[in-house]
Amino acid sequence: MNDVVSKLRNLLGSDCITDPAVTDGYLWDWRGLLRGSAACVLRPRSANLLSQSVRICREAGVSIVPQGGNTGLVGGATPDDIGLQIVISTGAMRKIRTVDPVDMSIVAEAGATIAELQTAAAEAGALFPLSFASEGTATLGGALATNAGGISAVRYGSARDLLLGMEVVLPDGRIWNGLRTLRKDNTGYALKYLFAGSEGTLGIITGAAMKLAPLSVGREVAFCAIESEDQVLDFWMKLRAAAEGNVRAIEYISNSCVELAKREGLRAPVGVADHYVLVELTSSRPDAGLKDVLEAFLAERLEDGTIVDAALAQSGEQQKQIWRLRDDQTEIQKKAGRDFKHDVAVPVPRVPELLRRSRAVIESDFPEATVVPFGHVGDGNIHLNVVLPATLGAERAAEQGKQISQAIYDIVLSLGGTFSAEHGIGRAKVDMLEAKRDPIELDLMRRIKAALDEDGSFNPGTVFRPS
Ligand code: FAD
Ligand code: 2HG
Ligand code: ZN
Fold it and tell me: Which of 43, 160, 267, 466 sits at 20 to 30 Å (Cα–Cα) from 295?
């Protein structure tokens, strides 16, 4: 191993890091559940240097764990605890190469953050639509590798839907340059879609070309209180009919989430109810009259009883405060106790049943648990999270958490849903994938993996069990 590290140091100089004080930050997952170890952490500054690093690792039979902003929630960017793997971070590759408001495309290196892409696009008068709470740290490469969704997927799609072209360092060290911005390109298999969502198991994305959208100039945000799960769905159906092209976000938040937020000093702008929905409308036209549209819509919903209270933000500051109730949930739930995440999706019409049945089962069988669901209701993607008190003790919490997850996943699958909607498989859901995915799909996935990564050296233990 010393020999490999010294070859990598010769190639990358101080971008081959072995100092434990510096490598430490690359060896934990964001949730603090995994702690790995690595022979070194590499931060190459170009696809070329990255490719040469991969070749050195490959010749020595050393496994690689690709890492972007390390905000993933399923442990896919953390090395195992043996100390023989090498983390390759894209942190030093964050140039925005082009922003073209005529072509409506942006081309950037994989380590550029989502927020940096948004800013660069806005400066050129366009919108980079991907958006989620970790956008200040999460990278383009990481978002593509996990096919991240987020709050505006309901309008613009997930990362894969915005993808035009890609540059990838393959497990054998070759660089595939597919950085095209063409809207139509049916020249054989669409390889880029294979790497999107592959979680670092098929190659390292070093750059991507992404679609832009027209810049939003108008923006209205409302927070609504709702009495029942069925009315949440009803509200969304009616909003879709009234303002579909303008809905940038429609997010569900349960009262238990709002209660946690209040403990952290946040305030809800409406009276207490069991459920809430956050709506954001945007438009690229300054004369779209979004405020009138939303005001009239909310008045009608109060009138027909779909909602019981509503607050339409009157300033940018109020919009921000409303969004904090939603965006801060991941941090708030991390602090609230032992949090068990369930990033699930069901067909949209089944969301009320999902919420009702999960709550009923957890509340009756696990009295110490608090169900804290929230998420992207317009996509049928609910984060059906559960928090157990920190006082429960690690062993009991782990045992109960396992049973709770089992109960939730059983409900999700019985509703025709998925146990991973937008966060991926990582290390956390490898057994679930193995147990629940159709054997033919699993076989095809394994063949693709074997064809691209013959030695199985790219992110072993993520998506599949290590061979
Ligand atoms: P990392 O965490 O570094 O890596 C994630 C996976 O991608 C790993 O398997 C890693 O090996 C692989 N990878 C990283 N970079 C590359 C690359 N260049 N090439 C190949 N493989 C690579 N996710 C959502 O989908 N929607 C949300 O709304 C959302 N909100 C979040 C909010 C918070 C507060 C947090 C902490 C996370 C949230 N996430 C969300 C999860 C996470 O931010 C996303 O999955 C994000 O896309 C990960 O990007 P990253 O750069 O941090 O990737
Ligand atoms: C979000 O939608 C993220 O904010 C994180 O996907 C979800 O914390 C979670 O479980
Ligand atoms: Zn989410």
Answer: 267
